[in-house]
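Lecture notes, continued. The same structure-token format from the folding unit now serves as the input rather than the output. Read the line below as a description of shape only.
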């Protein structure tokens, strides 16, 4: 008998496999991102008792296979259903974007306990309406980029290295391709392909990156700051993923005030 593994997990994606089975992509606490075969999950309602819903936090038991066979799910029990997310189209769109980002960015089989904690925090806060969804999405994206090692340097101008804090109020430019921040004094050296942000928006990005998650909900974001940082992050992330996530396209369609594209 192949050894069994037991761990908390969050269900990221489910794909039909044949007439009866499902392939599940999960972010687990102990094993990182994994794919599992859930045999007869579509045929039998009793097999996993409705546990295999997207975004659900689960306790899983599966067999580690020998050779290259896909692990087989044996048991799944619900730790937190986050049912309020699936009942709301906009919340579903945000959660889909975050989980697709995790699915596309992370390698399989590498423990990612900090990412697991971040995703669980974001889904729980979204489910409870702990903060505005658009602000929570900024928090998730910034913290995820930091954990993945892709967060740009928002502290200094990439040309003159002058700290943002020491720069007079004004608008900064950000080059998506090179992930470079450029201060107002160095702006004439730009050739195009950049986004602009106010100093206040940059400072809030830094605070989001460094503040303990327990205190993030106390921060206040103005509409302009949310708008321009949303555009920047939702441009930067697809560029460095090499594709626009399908869930992001859907989010832009259902988000109030969004034009559907950036």
């Amino acid at each position: 008998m192949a050894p069994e593994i037991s761990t908390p997990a969050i269900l990221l994606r489910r794909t039909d496999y044949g007439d009866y089975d499902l392939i599940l992509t999960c972010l687990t606490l102990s094993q990182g991102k994994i794919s599992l075969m859930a045999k007869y999950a579509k045929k039998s309602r009793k097999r996993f008792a409705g546990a295999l819903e997207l975004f659900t936090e689960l306790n899983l038991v599966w067999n580690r296979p020998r050779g290259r066979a896909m692990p087989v799910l044996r048991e799944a029990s619900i730790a937190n259903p986050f049912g309020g997310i699936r009942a709301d189209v906009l919340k579903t769109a945000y959660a889909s974007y975050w989980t697709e980002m995790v699915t596309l960015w992370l390698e399989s089989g590498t423990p990612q306990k900090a990412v697991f904690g971040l995703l669980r925090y974001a889904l729980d806060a979204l489910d409870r309406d702990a903060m505005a969804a658009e602000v929570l999405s900024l928090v998730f994206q910034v913290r995820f980029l930091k954990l993945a090692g892709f967060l740009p340097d928002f502290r200094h101008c990439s040309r003159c290295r002058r700290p943002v804090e020491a720069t007079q109020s004004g608008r900064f430019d950000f080059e998506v391709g090179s992930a470079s921040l450029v201060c107002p004094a160095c702006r004439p050296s730009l050739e195009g392909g950049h986004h602009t942000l106010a100093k206040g928006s940059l400072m809030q990005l830094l605070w989001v990156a460094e503040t303990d998650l327990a205190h993030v909900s106390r921060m206040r974001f103005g509409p302009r700051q949310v708008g321009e940082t949303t555009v920047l992050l939702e441009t930067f992330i697809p560029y460095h993923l090499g594709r626009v996530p399908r869930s992001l396209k859907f989010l832009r369609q259902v988000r109030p005030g969004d034009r559907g594209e950036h």
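Point for the exam: DSSP finds eight helices and eight strands in the chain.
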